[in-house]
Amino acid sequence: MTDTLINIEGLNLWYNQTQTLKDVDVHIQPRSVTAIIGPSGCGKTTLLRCINRMIDLVPGTRVTGSIKIGDFDVYGRGVDVTAIRKRIGLVMQKPTTLPMSIFENVAYGPRLYGTRRKKDLQEVVERSLRTGGLWDEVKDRLKDPASRLSVGQQQRLCLARGLAVEPEVILFDEPTSALDPVSTVKFEQEIIKLKDKYTCVIVTHNIHQAMRIADHVLFVYLGELVEHGTAHQVLTSPREASTASYLGSGI
Amino acid sequence: MTKRKLNNIIFKSLTFGAAGLLVIILVAILSVITIKGMKAMSWELITSIPSGGFYLGGKGGIANAIVGSLYLGIGATILALIVSIPTVLYLRVYAAHWFASIIRTLLDILWGVPSIVFGAFGFALMILLGMKASLLAGTITVALFELPIMIRSIDEVVKMVPHELEEVSYALGATRFETAVKVIFRQSLPGVVTGSLLAFGRGIGDAASVLFTAGFTDNIPHSPMDAAATLPLAIFFQLGTPFDEVRQRAYGAALILMILVLAASLLARLLGAKFNRYTVK
Amino acid sequence: MQLRRKITDFIAANAMLLATIFSGLLVVSIGGALLFRAWPLLAANGIFNVIFGAQWSPSNGLFGLKPFIIGTLWVTGLAIILAVPACVLAAIFLAEYAGPKTRGIIKPLIDLLSGIPSVIYGVWGVLVVVPFIADILGPYAAKHWHNIPIISTDYTTGFSILAGAVVLAIMIAPVIITVADEVLRAVPREVREVSFALGATHFETITRVVIRKALPGLIAAVVMGVSRALGETMAVLMVVGNVPLTPKSIFDPAYPLPALIANNYGEMMSIPLYDSALLAAALFLLLIVLVFNLLARAALNHAIKRAA
């Protein structure tokens, strides 16, 4: 929706005494899909969760450096964390529905920010479900408990729910790893459609997925940003040896 | 500050406040009892029996209740153990699945029975057997009261004994009884000790179950058929008198009872922590 | 040797079976024995008259339990009203805000609270709660709350429903808090994260999501508290006044069912059918407590299934 550039500068993170992110410096391009790839446990998810400060929920973490969304530093002094999270959505690995109806799941965010009138809520919910590619499947049963949806539908619900608060950036943490291949393809299609309006950052351990949907790729290894560039460049002709060896292992 | 932030802070403070309130109440209860009790405390209180009647007489102490309660509490706990341990071991080692289910359900139902109902039951038994209010009747009733508590806590401990341990014993050719005693019981012994201490604490502190069944007297019981004074009843009866000296005895009794119960529970906690180091995982 | 071990096993198995059957049948025996002793009255007056009869006058042969049932309802009801908000908040504190060290201090303290014998609560009630109501709260209510039903009063001795409810509320608090805490902690981490990721505050997350998900379990916690409250005898008896009149305000005394049984055991055998009446009361109490226990377990099972 905007040309918001995410500018990560000098990001370091310590978990208790161990440093898990080292000097990450990168620009994430607006209105595109950026994939973060790398071996498990090397910092991909940690990096992602720094962007919307969800990492704050883990006790024992300490962060230095800055992450700027446009001009606004997420780690600035006196920053209101809940306001940040309105601008940045997150779809997590495990499709998790709130214990409410489908309608209420999507309406949860807008309600927090003051939308109260039934008509306004209905508009937002329909718009978000359409953008998330779920409207046709649920429009007749919005009052049903969200838990009754299939896993693939639940994940698209999570997407719609995140879209309802009109973020500028959407983060995806291995969003299809719990889905079957058909649902995965459906979900990836929704992500591609989002590119026009939103800045998307997706952590994935599936190289083929990155090839299918990413415009840019970041390769994170042992807490360091080893390589970044266009998807084509990084995935087909990587510059660094560790990138090549990760890609070559056919993961 | 936005309204949302304000709500957040107010709510957090309320929850802090609620938890704090509970702690304050606990401290209030402990301190009031301690202060009042200490004022009444003396060597005479602990070692002599009331003179001039427990309700009216100002002299003497509560030795009758202290000794009565100890006899009753220890006796009841032992009786309860005699029934609980075999029950739990049987359920673990011998019982068929369907049988164990039924018994466990019955025991769960027993768990919630209030002590006054146990007292009433004990009383009904007394009438049936022609017994008078006595140490024995009281001990049996309190043993029944402690039974569900003890079975539940021993069962929790026995549940934690790994099945592999049992299988090893059978593989070596042991009978079920031998396995039950030498392996499972031995492994659970610390838990049995802590469970007993906790049940003892509950049993000795309960008034409603001894109200009808143990009677009350100025004297220390010399035989199980004698009536026995107990600390909870001593407190209850002596609190209600118009005479201040007698009421003082009640406060002293309250402090002693509280110390006994807290000591049992503290000991249970300490032993529990200590023994956990040695169990096989 | 083999034979001896086998015989030992056989004898032991049967002895243990006996113990097990004894334990299992105990609750049935209790119900049966009470019913047996209560039967003369129930047969003579009819169950309906016993439970709903409003007159209690043993020397006249009138054994209506209604005033005592009402007394129990008042005291238990007020205790729940007092206990639930504070206990739920305290459980939320433990489950959502308190760190491991704080939990390590507060949970044992709550256990301590639950271990204190009933008579001791009674003593404390008599020393602290009753005078407070008699000297401070009562006069205040007489002056300012004159026109409000239920909490108005002209004069109170302090021995009142309110005193009983306060003491009872403190006694059932550990049960409610412990179960509520476990239920709240069972709510999966991811559900909270979803709420936070959408920008909700901790307060909003707790009230709109966590409590919603934990609701069946929280209800079970309250029902367990009710069950414990119904059976509680000594502490309440010592502060509630024991007057069998229909109360009109929380400052009035009342006479709950357990107190009835406890206070009158002495005269039981002197008046015909008196013992039957008291044991019928005990039977009634037993059944009510059991019903609530079963409800609580059903609610907990439902909560567990929902969380899966």
Describe this structure in words.
Chain A has 251 residues and is α/β, with parallel strands linked by helices. Chain A has ten helices and ten strands. In chain A, the strands form two sheets. In chain A, strands 6-7-8-3-9-10 form a six-stranded mixed sheet, with helices on both faces. In chain A, strand 9 and strand 10 (224-230) form a beta hairpin. Chain B folds into two domains: 2-40; 45-278, MetI-like (MetI-like fold). In chain B, 76% of the residues lie in helices and 0% in strands. In chain C, helix 6 crosses helix 8, helix 7 runs antiparallel to helix 8 (202-231) and helix 8 (202-231) runs antiparallel to helix 11 (274-307). The relative contact order of chain C is 0.15. Chain C has helices at residues 2-45, 47-52, 66-97, 100-115, 118-144, 161-185, 189-197, 202-231, 234-239, 257-263, 274-307, and strands spanning 56-57, 62-63. In chain C, strands 1-2 form a two-stranded antiparallel sheet. The mean pLDDT of chain C is 90. Chain C has eleven helices and two strands.
| Global outline of chain C | flat
In total, the number of strands of chain C is 2
Work out the strand percent of chain A: 25-35%
**Structural class by sheet pairing and helices of chain C:** mainly alpha
Strand order, main sheet of chain C: write it out: 1-2
* Sequence of secondary-structure elements of chain C: HHEEHHHHHHHHH
The CATH topology of chain C is given as MetI-like fold
Mean pLDDT of chain A: 90
Between the first and last Cα atoms of chain C, what is the distance in angstroms?
52 Å
Query: How would a crystallographer describe the biggest sheet of chain C?
Result: 2 strands, antiparallel
Strand content of chain C: under 5%
Which percent range fits the helix content of chain C? over 70%
- The class by helix and strand makeup of chain A works out as alpha/beta
